[in-house]
Amino acid sequence: MDLRPYLEAALDAAYLAKGIHQYYQEKGFTHSTKSTPTDVVTQADHEAEAAIRALIAERFPDHVVLGEEQGQEGEGEFRWIVDPLDGTVNYAHGFPFYGVSIGLEVRGEVVLGVVLDTARGDLFTATKGGGAYLNGRPLRVSQRTTLVGSLLATGFPYDVARDPENLTYFQRALAKGLTVRRPGAAALDLANVAAGRLDGFWEVKLNPWDVAAGWLLITEAGGQVTGFQGEAYRLGNRYLVASNGRIHQALLEALQGR
Ligand code: IPD
Ligand code: CA
Ligand code: CA
Fold first, then answer.
1. Residue 208 CA: which ligand is closest?
2. Which H or E element spans position 15?
3. Residues sharing a CB contact under 8 Å with residue 170, sequence separation 6 or more, in sequence order
C-alpha cells in the first residue's frame, strides 16, 4: 500500500496541532478538568483535535477517527488514532515536554505513526516496514544491555491516588537502584525510546491514543513492546513495557520484583 498520502496528511495534521499548541501557549487558554482534579484539558487539546479531524475528513471522508477528546463514531477499515495534545499537564504549566501523536490503523494494524514534540520541534515518523525517522534521519533504539546504567521512564494515570498499582512497580525499580524518570507525556516517552534517548518505559493505564504511533516507532527502530508478562502488545492493552529489546527481559523481571 502506498502510505505517502497518509503520511503527508499526518504531517500536515501534526504541524496544525503544533501551531495550535504554540498559539494558546502564547495567548493564554481556558481549561477544565475531566476524570479527577488533576486531569486537565485545555482549549488547545480541543482545538487541536478539531483541526486534525477537519483535515482528515476533508482528505479522506470515509476514514474513522478515534481521538482522546471526541472519541470515535462509526467503524471503518481506516482508523486514525489521535492524541491532539499529549502531556497536557506539562503544557498547562509551560513545562516544555508535550506534543501530538497521530497513528493510522488499516484493517486493525497500525501502519503509520507520527509524534511531533512541540517544544523541541522533534518530528518522529514511522511506517510499517519502512523504518522510523527523527527529523528525516533513520532511528535506532539504544545498544545498552544492562538495566543498571539504563535510563528508564514511566508515567502515572490521573487516578493514581485511587489506584496506586504503578507505585509498586516504580518502587521496585527505584529499590533496585535503577534510574527512572516520569516525564509526563507517554507518546513522547515512547518516541524517545525509539530514538535511543531512553532505554525503557512502562505504564499501566495507557489508552490507544497514547500508544499507537509510539509503538510503531519503537518496533520500526528495532525495539520491543509487550505486556507485563512479555506477551505481544495489542492496541487497547493498558499495560505496556517498551525497551530497546536488549534489556527487555531484565526490565520485566524487575517490575515483577524478581
Ligand atoms: C497522559 C500523559 C502521561 C501519562 C498519562 C496520560 P495526556 O496523557 O501521557 O504521561 O502518564 O497516562 O494520560 O492526558 O497528557 O494526553
Ligand atoms: Ca496522552
Ligand atoms: Ca491528550
1. 2
2. helix 4-27
3. 154, 156, 180
Question: For 129, left (φ over 0), alpha (ψ -120 to 50), or beta?
Answer: left
Question: Closest residue (by CA) to atom 13 of ligand 1?
Answer: 157
Q: For the chain, which domains are there?
A: 4-138 (3.30.540.10), 151-255 (3.40.190.80)
Q: How far is CA 241 from the centre of its chain?
A: 13
The DSSP call for residue 204 is S
Residue nearest to atom 15 of ligand 1 (CA): 87
Please list the ranges in the chain whose pLDDT falls under 70. Answer: none
**φ, ψ for residue 181, nearest 5 deg:** -110, 160
Pocket test for ligand 1, best of 210, 215, 239 (most atoms within 8 A of CB): 210
Q: pLDDT tens-digit profile of 75-112?
A: 999 999 999 999 999 999 999 999 999 999 999 999 99
On whether the CB atoms of residues 88 and 179 are closer than 8 A, the answer is no
**How many Å lie between the centroid of ligand 2 and the Cα of residue 124?**
16
Q: How far apart are CA 74 and CA 119, in angstroms?
A: 34
Give helix 208-220 / helix 186-194 axis angle, nearest 10°: 0
Q: Which residues line ligand 1 (CB under 6 A)?
A: 83, 86-88, 155-157, 184-186, 203, 205-206, 210
Which ligand 1 atom minimizes the distance to the CA of 186? 9
At 209 the pLDDT is 98
Rounded Cα–Cα distance for residues 123 and 133 (Å): 8
Shortest-distance atom of ligand 1 to CA 40: 14
pTM of the model: 0.97
pLDDT digits (tens, 9 = 90+) for 181-198: 999 999 999 999 999 999
Find the 89 Cα to ligand 1 centroid distance in Å. 8
